[in-house]
Amino acid sequence: MRMTDSKMLFSDKGLKNTKNRQLVLGVLREAELPLTAEDIYLCLKEVDATLSLSTVYRILDIFVEKELALKAGVAKDNAAMYELNDSSHKHHLVCLNCKKIQRVYNCPLEDFEKNVAKETDFSITGHRLELYGYCPECQKNL
Amino acid sequence: MRMTDSKMLFSDKGLKNTKNRQLVLGVLREAELPLTAEDIYLCLKEVDATLSLSTVYRILDIFVEKELALKAGVAKDNAAMYELNDSSHKHHLVCLNCKKIQRVYNCPLEDFEKNVAKETDFSITGHRLELYGYCPECQKNL
DNA sequence: GATGCAAATGCAAAACATTTGCATCTAGTA
DNA sequence: TACTAGATGCAAATGTTTTGCATTTGCATC
């Protein structure tokens, strides 16, 4: 069961298993695209969850610290975006005109990461890749 | 001469060639790593340039719009970082503990970009890649 | 199941990054 | 040189994220 999953996930990282953390984790799991703290907050409000926006921020911070989540670039205005740091690599293609974000599948970086790790002695735990350009519709209208 | 370079660069993009823009462009050219608006502002203050922080923001915005610069992720607290969008790909390796940023050379993405462009009909103008991990020193201390 | 403690949360206020309105100035053009 | 659109400075406004503090809750221990 889901809830047991996350319970173990949290305790492995030394985190208490709270309802709010389960909720935020759940939203991130469902999300196809990176979300802002506010996106998550509003999304949970719709489901009648009553947690505060600052709690969402605190939960996201700690998820990032524990490497459950990645803090992403600044696509949507200036709000930070967050996504799950699971093995299913999620990369994105952002339209510079309409700001639409689209997922890109597969990822050419596994080998690259290994090479960089060897060259720099970093231990590499993840990466983010964003591609920029213009989507088909915006190309027409420009 | 440098200045003539940038004059043409600006007029090509329909931008006036102002002293402030030259200065900001210059700082970005020298920079090994992405900079925040404030970094640039402070850096120019040291050289006795007297432009305002909001001008720096406005210049960066327009550089991004004209694809002279890329607006980067949120590594340093929550401030956006900017770097030149020149052909010399600059990718970065960020230490999740001490936040140090190190450059990574070469880039495995040229072919990948072409494939994605074909699959999605986007016209791709650039990309950003960041690798995360722990630097050698921080690995020792953890 | 009850108890205690550290960690998590809500709320409001603070801190910080970025944008904007408006008056003034300046680069590029005729 | 004069004109005009665009660039800039300054201060105020906006939006995002963090923080202090009082209260609550999860979890380990009994």
Task: Give a quick precis of the structure.
2 copies of one chain form a homodimer. By secondary structure, chain A is an alpha+beta fold.
Can you describe this structure?
The structure is a homodimer of 142-residue chains. With 142 residues, chain A is α+β, with helices and mostly antiparallel strands. Helix content of chain A is 44%, strand content 22%. Chain A contains 6 helices and 6 strands, in the order H-H-E-H-H-E-E-E-E-H-E-H. In chain A, the strands form 2 sheets. Chain A has a 3-stranded antiparallel beta sheet with strand order 1-3-2. Chain A has a 3-stranded mixed beta sheet with strand order 5-4-6. In chain A, a hairpin with an 8-residue loop joins strand 2 and strand 3 (81-84). In chain A, helix 2 (19-30) crosses helix 3 and helix 3 packs across helix 4 (53-65). Chain A binds chain B through residues 67, 70-74, 78, 80, 93, 95-96, 102, 104, 108-109, 111-113, 116-117, 120-136, 139, and chain B through 67, 70-74, 78, 80, 93, 95-96, 102, 104, 108-109, 111-113, 116-117, 120-136, 139. Strand 6 (123-134) of chain A pairs antiparallel with strand 6 of chain B, so a sheet runs across the interface. The structure holds a DNA duplex (30 and 30 nucleotides).
